[in-house]
Amino acid sequence: MRRYTHIFRLWFYEECSDALRLRRFICTGDQVSPSVSSDSEQLVSNIVSIFTKKPFHRDSLELRNLAPALTTKVVESVLNRFKSWKIAHEFFDWASSQSGYMHNCYTINALAAVLSGARRNAEMKTLSSYLVNSRCPMTPGALGFFIRCLGNVGMVEEADAVLNQAKDLGLCIPNKYTYNCLLQAISRSNKVEILEMRLKEMTDFGWELDKFTLTPVLQMYCNLGRMKCAMRVFEIMGDQDWLDVHSLSIMVLRLSKLCLTDEVFELIQKMESRNIRVNEQTFCILIHGFVKESKLDAALELFDKMKRSGFTPEISLYDTIIEGLCKKGQLKRALDLYLEMRESGISPDSKLLIKLSNFFSEEQMIQLLEELPEGMDTKTVTLYYNLLLTFYIKAGLTDKAHIMLRGIMGSDSNSCDTAMDSLIKFKGAGFVSTASFNIVISGLIQKGEVDSAVGLFLDMGQVHCRPTVEIYNNLIEALCNSNKLDVAKDLLREMEATSGLSPTQFTHNCIFGCLCRREDTIGAIDMVKVMRVYVHEPWIKHSSDLVKRLCNKGRVTEACSFLADLVEEGFVPDIVAYSTAMRGLIQTHKIDQAMELFRDLQAQGCHPDVVAYNILISGLCKAKRVSEADKLFEEMLEGGLFPSVVTYNSMIDGWCQIGDVDRALLCLSKISRKAQEGGPDVITYTTLIDGLCNAGKPDEALTMWDEMKRQGCVPHSITFMAMIKGLSKSGRPEEARSYLKEMLREGMKPQIYVYVALLEALISEQKLDETFQVLREMLEIGSFPELKDKWHVALRDVLAKLVQDERTSSSIRALVAEGHLGPHLSDTDR
DNA sequence: GTAGGGTTAG
């Protein structure tokens, strides 16, 4: 009984100040400190400075001296002064351990406000336990406050539990206010059962409900979308005249979420007649929502209402609506709104302007400029100018942008057309920026007008604009791409020496790439030496490109030494660059060197891939070193690599080359038929057809042809040629001819050697008429090969035989006379 | 403002 008396006294005295504090809290959002005497004020400052000072020792003498003077009022003040929740927490902890001092519900709440604001849920949980375990008596208001702190961080169940515990332990006799706080906390969740249970409890107590009870209930039903219940609560509140800005917001936001636009307006109207107005935040949320749903009329109507209610919209709201209008194609309204915004004193930011320029036409962009008020500050004018410049560049009107920029600079007013002249109200160096140059220079480069770009760049100094790394890089890249290496190098020098800018990896690589394209090995390596100083890695694609170019021209040795030089400089090329070099070596018949390079790489820990193996295997096979190739093949399998069709094709060719057709066929059977690997391809079959014919097995070649077609593989001209040549060489020119006919029907043009083989086969069988026919066909689709042609002599032999025979000699002479056989034959065959 | 470069049949 005594205990209850104590609590009663406590809250009887303190309820008033509690209520006052809460009121202030609601208005300002801050936990309000109790007033302390000036002595205490000094103490508070001392403690605050000790705790914020680093390094900090909680056992310092200074603190120990202060401890005896500690009171709850002082602690509360101190807690409200810290900006960091961590320090507040630390101080609270320190205070708890001082002898003779005990926290009360106000110091606990002070910490709760700090922790809740910082969303420290874990610490809030600990504080809840502390509150209960310390058996700290609480006023109903204090408990309510604590519960709201829990609610703010979504700790609804904890809030519910704390109320029970405080009640059960007799720490507090909660009143309606406490319960209302709890309801408010619960309404932030979807735990409707808890809410309804508490509500029932309250009615059981015989308490009269008020608007603070029903607002959370309304909120809960709205959250859950139980609109019938929500409407019922709303009506009750209306009947009791309990509606306010807050409840209106809840309802109106929900209605807009349900897309009930008409109802939103109806409700706002109705409320206005009762002098309840939507607050600024709700206006903003509603307008954003409407724009999102493309209800621009509704958004604009609300926007007007908002302004009439005396609110000044912020730029973000203008931004949203203007963008919405642009997207709907209502550019006129967007522009009007934009101008209205500018008039209302909001200075436009570049984000919104850039957005507008994506939608506006040239006329609208110009209108924007023309309506610039006199006396606009330089920076803003430049922003508008740059916008129009960007617009012109995007529209491909590069010349216009160029003329405009020069017009603003005032450099050549005579060449500036009058329309442009009137557009540019503000002229002079102050109205252009580095960005203006960047825009136009990039535009010129895109159009391939590199010289103009450089010219413009050189004029930047006149208007005191400093070039950036980006501008230098753009120019240097463009110059290198158009092979103007000297100018690019000049710019690089100027970049460092005059502008004091550091070239980037990109800058150097542009020049390195250009040197590589020029096949300037020495220059490239010199550049690499420079780059090494900057720790700029030369891009491997450029190195590979150079290697490939050199190899294609037979400069393999140079290519290899370039790669070695790169290594020397500390930049190790990758397997692709080396593969190119190995192929280059193979093409110049330096297979052993290629092998050596390959083994060196492996020795350095590099694991060559399938392509690298393929290059070597094919090289060895072409050189008929098939058993070595086969060893590599095995090695590759051991290394866990999967041979590709290319690998098999090369091996098949190799086996055929040395006449081991059986091994070739064995390879064929091993080619994976997995869907993603595709199985044998045209090249496989072509190689085999060629190999089988060469091995004197034309019948098997014919079977292979059928097999290929059965597999759905379509023969190429090379396949046809292999078949035709093969059959001819096997003494079966008749069949060869039928494949030739099919090939021609397919629209493919055989190479000359195919005809040579066929003609030779026909003539050796003395089929002179047919030989002549094929010769005529050959001449129909192409001219007779010239003297220096590889096949010239062979064909002349054929002709000689035809001329010697009386059945065909006159026809051949006729052909010669008509000039079909070229100029070289006339003397021989006469 | 920056990733695609190397392999097989005649």
UniProtKB/TrEMBL annotation:
Residues 199-305 form the Pentatricopeptide repeat-containing protein-mitochondrial domain. It comes from the Eukaryota. The keyword Repeat applies. PROSITE patterns: PPR. Keywords: Repeat. Gene3D superfamilies: Tetratricopeptide repeat domain (1.25.40.10). SUPFAM superfamilies: HCP-like. It holds the Pfam family PPR_2. PPR repeats lie at residues 175-209, 279-313, 314-348, 433-467, 468-498, 574-608, 609-643, 644-674, 681-715, 716-750, 751-785. NCBIfam families: PPR. Belongs to the PPR family. P subfamily. PANTHER family: OS03G0856100 PROTEIN, TETRATRICOPEPTIDE-LIKE HELICAL DOMAIN SUPERFAMILY. This is Pentatricopeptide repeat-containing protein-mitochondrial domain-containing protein.
